[in-house]
């Protein structure tokens, strides 16, 4: 009988960092959601979105993160982020519409331009090292 080791890992956050892909998709969804928005985000606004990325819990919260970045709101902790209220700007129905747009934009990116989708991800170098060691262990 042959013993095999099976390794199961989570894709995002373990193998690859999807921050740039998520922000790209979130902005594309926002452009369609808010057709009056035709600007590019500044470097500082993108930097803010990258900082907020670990605080986002679900696609609709990218709308909150974008609102924070566009309005230059100072968010220091997850508590600050979770308590930032956008219910006076967006209804639950609008949040659902944005969430749907987010996943549609991601699906289209993967389907129409898988290379770009892949290039928007960054491999964690520590995972590459681990994988090489794991393969050699076998």
Keywords:
single chain; 138 residues; mainly alpha; two-stranded antiparallel ribbon; 2 strands; elongated
Write the layout of secondary structure elements.
Elements: E1 16-17, H1 19-33, H2 43-52, H3 61-70, H4 78-83, H5 92-112, H6 114-119, E2 122-123, H7 125-137
Antiparallel strand pairs: 1-2
Helix pairs in contact: 1-5, 2-3
Description:
With 138 residues, this protein is mainly α. 59% of the residues lie in helices and 3% in strands. It has 7 helices and 2 strands, in the order βααααααβα. Helix 1 crosses helix 5 (92-112) and helix 2 packs antiparallel against helix 3. The longest helix is centred in the C-terminal third of the chain and has 21 residues, at 92-112.
Query: What best-fitting shape do the alpha-carbon axes yield?
Result: elongated
Name the helix and strand elements from N-terminus to C-terminus, one letter apiece. EHHHHHHEH
Arrangement of strands in the largest sheet: 1-2
Average per-residue pLDDT, rounded, comes to 91
Distance N terminus to C terminus?
16 Å
**Fraction in beta strands:** under 5%
Tally of individual helices: 7
User: What class would the helix/strand composition place it in?
Assistant: mainly alpha
Largest sheet: 2 strands, antiparallel
Helix content: 55-70%
**How large is the radius of gyration?**
18 Å
Number of strands: 2
Low-confidence stretches: none
